[in-house]
Amino acid sequence: MGEAQVSLKHLFRVFTKPEHKDSKLAQIEEHLSDNILDFLSQHVVTKKTSLEEVEQDFADAMMPESPEFVSTHAENLLEKLVAHSVNTYSPTFIGHMTSALPYFHLSLAKLLVGLNQNLVKIETSKAFTPLERQVLGMMHNLVYEQDESFYEQYLHSARHALGAFCSGGTVANITALWVARNKILGPEGRFPGVARAGLASAYRHYDIDNLGVLCSRRGHYSLSKAVDVLGIGRENLITLPCPEQVLDPAEALRKGREYQEQGNKLLAIVGIGGTTETGHVDPLDELADVAEELGCWFHVDAAWGGATLFSKHYRGILKGIEKADSVTIDAHKQMYVPMGAGMALFKNPADANAVRHHAQYILREGSKDLGATTLEGSRNGMAMMVYSSLHILGRRGYELLINQSIEKAKKFAAMIEAHPDFELITSPTLSIMTYRVCPAAIQEQLKTLPQVQAQRLNSKVDRLVVNVQKLQREAGKSFVSRTRLECPVYGAYPITVFRVVLANPMTTTRDLRAILEEQHAIASRNRVWQELLAVSAPATLDQA
Ligand SMILES: *Cc1c(COP(=O)(O)O)cnc(C)c1O
């Protein structure tokens, strides 16, 4: 059924001629541009709850032998793929950083594919290259606030880069630490630098055992990937516990010194401008001073939280970010740009030269090809989405969006605190918070129990939280994520908590109330809830 003819003549049509206006794909397109929310609520049905069931639709590894009509294929996509996707546009999907997007991105995405520019080199991108450089300049300005003459000098300079545009925070973090590594183990005397000679020679030349990166335990796992990729090794990602939720500068200094005294070199301190799990912001200003004292690079991972800088009211939370040698910001998080838009920004526009590469057929000496200083090669023009968003929303538009997220988070936190059977675990600095469901009677008991017993009881509450989170997700009305954290109230062992990211501007306080009520209903019907209350009499606790 639906088998298309195999002839070049027919295949050429796929390149040149769209299908009829009433074909399935055209219908999908029209529905999407007409009303995305309606499209999603109609087609994303998620009737299959388990991933294993969905896997049945993608079970064989046979290469399709013959061509298929686009329309037939579109049906197939709707049925197998779209139906079991996740409706990230839903205002009650508040578990992750991925959310609804402004509608204009759909049309821009079409323009992007229509033009199919490759930003690795000017020969395949032309205007997109200066556009991307301008976007990096605007974001650099947001962080570092240099004067006009600075940007005049560097924005389009072939020998400088204000940043590197990339696919996301992971690559941005790797890029920033790559630059840092190549600078810290740079050329010296007859030593040509780590980029040419490799790590083993560099360690010998600099007479060090290891190179390390220091951050808090809340650091994103991409930092662990970064030290792995850069050859430094995961054991040299020094993660400090953060009982106060943020990296303690005095402790960072002490640990950094200790590491150096053991014959190692500290590559960088990474401060986090909005942790992925709890949204906390490290004391960036003080950490910058610590990095200076230790003589290492200071990187700020503000992949998620960086957009707070748009808000005059809240940007002070990130105070000190302007002292960072490099900063990661993801546009595909709080800037509401589709995925694939991250940036590493460099305070010093000459720093990117530490990773500059040349090739004969492109990226020639003196060219403005962006690919000379990016980790990725072929790359699409996502910078256009950022450019357009910055224009369409403006700084003031972003400011409103950021402010309302933070204020809504505060309201939700108050709602949680006011509910006897919920416990706020980390209150929102920005618009992420964690909390858990726990019967009021158990909360009372936990206050007085000795640690060992409290821990045992808490592990039962953990089970309740896990059950509720899973059941809520399976019910499909709303979604909250979960994680495990050490929190100040319960000391040195981790507990399981719900994690909320308020990303979608369309989420209302009514949605939030409904989510709490749904969780409460699921929890109080759960077997673990009954078990908790049954063992809550102190006499029987030992068997709990
Ligand atoms: C999301 C995030 C990252 C990773 O970014 P990707 O775009 O997912 O690669 C890194 N650090 C922090 C703090 C993040 O929130």
TrEMBL record:
Lineage top rank: taxon: Bacteria
EC numbers: 4.1.1.-
Statement: the UniProt record of this protein carries the keyword Glycoprotein: no
Keywords (A to Z) from UniProt: Decarboxylase, Lyase, Pyridoxal phosphate
Gene for this chain: panP
Family annotation (SUPFAM superfamilies): PLP-dependent transferases (SSF53383)
Family: Belongs to the group II decarboxylase family.
Entry protein name: Pyridoxal-dependent aspartate 1-decarboxylase PanP
GO molecular function: lyase activity
Lyase as UniProt keyword: yes
Enzyme class: lyase
Any single Pfam family the record assigns to this protein: Pyridoxal_deC
Cofactor(s) demanded: pyridoxal 5'-phosphate
Phylogenetic classification of the source organism: Bacteria, Pseudomonadati, Pseudomonadota, Gammaproteobacteria, Alteromonadales
Entries under PANTHER family matching the protein: CYSTEINE SULFINIC ACID DECARBOXYLASE, GLUTAMATE DECARBOXYLASE-RELATED
